[in-house]
Design a protein that fits this description.
Layout: E1 2-7, H1 12-22, E2 25-26, E3 29-33, E4 39-43, E5 50-55, H2 61-76, E6 81-86, H3 105-114, E7 123-128, E8 143-148, H4 151-162, E9 167-170, H5 176-186, E10 189-191, E11 193-197, E12 203-208, E13 216-224, H6 228-239, E14 244-252, H7 258-264, E15 268-274, H8 278-286, E16 291-294, H9 297-307
Parallel strand pairs: 1-2, 1-5, 5-6, 6-7, 7-8, 9-10, 9-13, 13-14, 14-15, 15-16
Antiparallel strand pairs: 3-4, 11-12
């Protein structure tokens, strides 16, 4: 089978880097929007009898539906196998029900992608650094789901920031286990903060578990959204005597004025994030003095070659 790489418009730059690693032909799509908002989509490249790898966007409902429509079209146009790569699966907040009547959006989106017609040689989905480990179990039928981890990129980025002399910090106890695992792999000390919930919207840091005085603390979180929790954690480490604060994350979402908020805190000196989220790449172009991108093309290429 011929190997073919297609991509959503949001991942043009990532697709270019990935294509250079795996040396697959790149396909072309035509996407337009009618005056009433309806979308026109066409697969310009012949995908018949091809092993198609589709780098799809899923950071919003609009992007997810477009990815679903295009994936259906790829299979219906004759692809022998479909591998859907979703660097950012944007449904990690509502991944479980806590209150009666709540909608588990992550499960519904998994069902949506599970409904993509099956290619003769099957459908596969690659997901990266999910906020909730249980999400792959929401996919149904004969869709094979692979959860990829950006650990090597994160370790490389942390060493780029701090060499071998730093403390790896967590924003809260929820990510403590993963931070401890990363710290052990890097041979550095891990630090955690303890919080007390004062109300539904307010928490107070009560303690820092490690000695961070005079040290460079690199905080790891799997995703950064508005940055509120991150700034609170950074302040706690500074109050405990940290000399310098940097941040590393897999998914830099940065909605609204999140970057300005982080910069104006004057606590965090630099943020490293992967190019898993389209907005991270755009914000890095604007705030190149503050955000550095860690490419995931090697990770994706390794996963593609291994599964191929």
């Amino acid at each position: 089978m011929k190997n073919l790489l297609l991509h959503s418009p949001e991942y043009k730059e990532l697709a270019e880097k990935l294509a250079s690693k795996i040396n697959y032909d790149r396909g072309r799509l035509e996407l337009n929007t009618f005056p009433d908002g309806e979308r026109y989509m066409r697969i310009l490249t012949d995908v018949r009898d091809c092993d198609v790898f589709f780098l799809g966007a899923a950071q919003s409902d609009a992007a997810s539906l477009q990815t679903f429509d295009l994936a259906c079209g790829i299979v219906e146009a004759g692809a022998k196998r479909l591998t859907l790569i979703l660097p950012y699966f944007g449904y990690s907040t509502m991944e479980r029900r806590i209150l009666s009547g709540e909608i588990v959006t992550a499960k519904n989106r998994a069902r949506l992608y599970s409904a993509i017609p099956k290619a003769p040689y099957g459908n596969r989905i690659f997901l990266l650094d999910l906020h909730a480990e249980g999400i792959p179990h929401y996919f149904e039928g004969n869709t094979f789901v692979f959860h990829l981890y950006a650990k090597e990129a994160i370790i490389s980025g942390a060493k780029q920031l701090g060499g071998h002399e730093f403390v790896l910090g967590s924003t809260d106890s929820g990510r403590a286990k993963w931070v401890e695992s990363l710290a052990n792999d890097m041979g550095v000390q891990a630090a955690f903060i303890y919080k007390k919930r004062l109300s539904a919207t307010e928490t107070k840091v009560t303690a820092v578990n490690a000695h961070v005085k005079g040290k460079h603390v690199i905080i790891y979180d799997d995703m950064i959204r508005t940055g509120g929790s991150l700034i609170g954690a950074a302040q706690a480490y500074m109050d405990a005597g940290a000399e310098k604060l940097s941040v590393i994350t897999t998914h830099g979402i940065f909605p609204g004025n999140a970057i300005e908020r982080l910069k104006s805190s004057r606590i965090i000196t630099q943020v490293l994030c992967t190019d898993s989220h389209p907005n991270a790449v755009e914000q890095a172009k604007i705030h190149s003095d503050f955000i550095t991108i860690l490419g995931i093309e090697n990770l994706l290429a390794e996963a593609i070659v291994h599964q191929h």
